[in-house]
Amino acid sequence: MTGKQASGRGPAARAQLRRRLARADLAAVPEVRRALRDLLRHRGRRECSDVAELLTTELVTNALVHTEHDAEVTATVSVSRLRVEVRDFVARHPTLRVPVADDGTNGRGLVLVQALADAWGVKAHGVGKAVWFELDMAGGGPA
């Protein structure tokens, strides 16, 4: 896993986390969670950080498990908003499935994203796609 973290100063300052994840490197998932927690430590409410970590974990895990390619995660936080994008290099879009009760923990990732994010979607890239979500860091909660 490689990456950088930068932050700005002032009221409209943005901070960003960017990581490239190697194909099938599930050990990168807790590393991304820790890096996101550090990024959000002094920004927003604790419950936003918990939700952000959960949703980022779901998207990163999906990208690593359901593709046979590398992935990239980018988290950008401003005073009022967090946006996380997980890009992979497979054009196939993810499918929102209703989880089956006896299916263990599989099939719940996008359902969680849909339920907990203030906004989310899939954006096509020249090669592959980015699945993203946004959280309101100023207050409120999911719409």
Give an overview of the whole structure:
- There is one protein chain.
- The chain is of the alpha+beta class.
- It is built from three helices and six strands; from the N terminus they run E-E-H-H-E-E-H-E-E.
- The protein has a six-stranded antiparallel β-sheet with strand order 1-2-3-4-6-5, covered by helices on one side.
- The longest helix is centred in the middle third of the chain and has 21 residues, at 46-66.
- The protein is globular, with a radius of gyration of 15 Å.
Strand fraction: 25-35%
Main sheet overview: 6 strands, antiparallel
Strand order of the largest sheet: 1-2-3-4-6-5
Mean pLDDT: 82
Low-confidence stretches are 1-11
Q: Please give the number of β-strands.
A: 6
Distance between the termini: 34 Å
The structural class is alpha+beta
Question: How many helices?
Answer: 3
What share of the residues lie within helices? 25-40%
User: Using only CA atoms, what is the Rg?
Assistant: 15 Å
Outline, from the CA principal axes? Answer: globular
Order of helices and strands: EEHHEEHEE
Can you lay out the helices and strands and say which pair or pack?
Layout: E1 2-7, E2 15-21, H1 28-40, H2 46-66, E3 71-77, E4 81-88, H3 109-116, E5 119-124, E6 129-136
Antiparallel strand pairs: 1-2, 2-3, 3-4, 4-6, 5-6
Helix pairs in contact: 1-2, 2-3
